[in-house]
Design brief:
Chain lengths: 266, 189
């Protein structure tokens, strides 16, 4: 997955709308990508704007007193612990000095051992995280394939062929539409690979609405193949056609052009 | 809002145990956070409880705050919002904004701060600018963002609520956030 896609996940994560899987993959990526980390932080600031639009409301005065008392009590407890420790420290100063000397002598040896062990643990943890990530990706692919095969085998599933349009006459797509689950699996072939600053976007043209609806954004591999799973489809009678356009990276609210790559009636 | 985005951070002093700085932090942000929690929870008692949790968490975790990574306001808002949504989910109540709108307004108006006028002209101006930025978003994008942010709905729950395909909702939220991020730069010094 490329940085732009992680930035898109970061946008959702900032408002708590990333899925658990997206959130996990984002956290793993952020650990090693300063650019995406900065983007996530900016999205965090942007999300705070949603709160800042709300007219401020002063809480009742007793809330302030309650909070300050709770925190003050905690701080006071810490301070009294410090005083008690200080008193003990003075009375035991002679043997503490001896212990400290011994400790420092041993500390050097132990520290080297601990650092080596920590480095080893870090390396193994990174390896485990990487393997877990790979396993998760494989599991997701397996689940996707199982769901797609199940849909293809279902008696209620409709198969629709989409033909290449003017922008890419040799392209095609097969749609496996499961009306009961309002879900579709779309497999594209022979589409030209998209540039890094562009995304393909699948549109649903509805009978009951003048504007097309986005059904997902996807990239095409150099071999020309891609697949998209569309969930929560409109009911079949509302869908008139499907079409694909090439749009700015990450997709747009409405198509910016009518240069269709693939199109067909449903 | 009781803060501006240029106000120096208090959290570093709080991390050193400075109670005076903590009081200043409360005075600076409590109205903003309480209003946010009322919006999320639509219940004054719950909002006060979560407000207390938020400030106690801020006191305990102040040393985790890194000014390079973001503003103090965004850090506190993030804690309050997250705890507010947790509370909302624990109550298993999804507030119906349309049905509850009257109640929400009455809660807010009963506590509006008359003491100081709550905010200076600068802060009021800043909030107006924020509202204008949000008003510039297409309605469907703004609605999707607010359902996620204030009601804690997942992508699929929002799609279900709006009767739109999941892909449409996801694209709307991403585009809305991109625009907000661009607008955010206009507020930064």
């Amino acid at each position: 997955m490329i940085h732009e896609e992680f930035e898109s996940i970061a946008a959702l994560d900032a408002i708590g709308a990333a899925t658990a899987d997206e959130e996990r993959r984002l956290r793993e990526h952020l650990a090693s990508c300063a650019g995406c980390r900065a983007a996530r932080e900016e999205y965090g600031e942007a999300a705070a704007l949603l709160a800042r639009q709300v007219e401020p409301v002063a809480p009742p005065p007793d809330v302030r007193a309650r909070i300050l008392n709770a925190v003050d009590a905690g701080a006071g407890e810490s301070a009294s612990n410090v005083v008690e420790l200080e008193s003990r420290r003075r009375s035991n100063a002679w043997w503490l000095a001896t212990a400290a000397t011994l400790f420092l002598a041993l500390w050097g040896w132990r520290e080297i051992g601990i650092r080596v062990a920590r480095e080893k643990v870090r390396s193994q943890e990174a390896e485990i995280a990487q393997l877990r990530g790979q396993t998760d990706v494989l599991n997701q692919q397996k689940e996707k394939l199982t769901a797609a095969m199940s849909a293809m085998a279902s008696a209620g599933t409709r198969t629709i062929s989409l033909a290449g349009a003017q922008a890419s006459p040799e392209a095609s797509a097969r749609v496996f539409l499961d009306p009961e689950k309002r879900r579709a699996f779309v497999f594209f072939s022979n589409l030209p690979a998209n540039a890094a600053d562009k995304s393909y976007q699948l549109w649903i043209i509805r009978a009951d609405q003048p504007q097309p609806q986005s059904a997902g954004v996807f990239d095409v591999a150099p071999n020309g193949n891609a697949s998209v799973t569309v969930e929560n489809l409109p009911v079949a009678t509302e869908m008139k056609a499907l079409a694909v356009t090439l749009e700015p990276k990450g997709g747009v609210e409405q198509p910016t052009n009518t240069n269709f790559f693939v199109m067909g009636n449903t | 809002m009781n803060d501006t985005m240029e106000t120096p951070a208090l959290l570093p002093a709080i991390a050193r145990g400075d109670l005076v700085a903590f009081e200043a932090l409360y005075d600076r942000y409590s109205s903003t956070l309480y209003a946010l929690l009322l919006r999320i929870l639509s219940n004054a008692e719950d909002a006060q409880e979560v407000l207390q949790e938020t400030f106690v968490k801020a006191w305990a975790s102040a040393k985790m705050f890194d000014a390079v990574r973001g503003s103090e306001a965004a850090w506190l808002i993030s804690i309050a919002r997250s705890r507010g949504i947790d509370k909302l989910r624990s109550r298993k109540i999804r507030v119906d904004r349309e049905n509850d709108a009257g109640r929400e307004i009455s809660i807010q108006s009963s506590f509006v701060d008359k003491k100081t006028g709550a905010d200076s002209a600068i802060q009021s101006e800043e909030r107006t600018a924020v509202r204008n930025a949000l008003a510039e978003l297409p309605e469907p994008q703004r609605v999707a963002l607010e359902l996620a942010y204030f009601e804690g709905l997942s992508q699929s729950e929002i799609a279900e609520r709006l009767g739109e395909p999941l892909g449409t909702v996801k694209t709307r939220m991403q585009l809305g956030m991109k625009k907000l991020r661009e607008r955010l730069r206009a507020f930064q010094p």
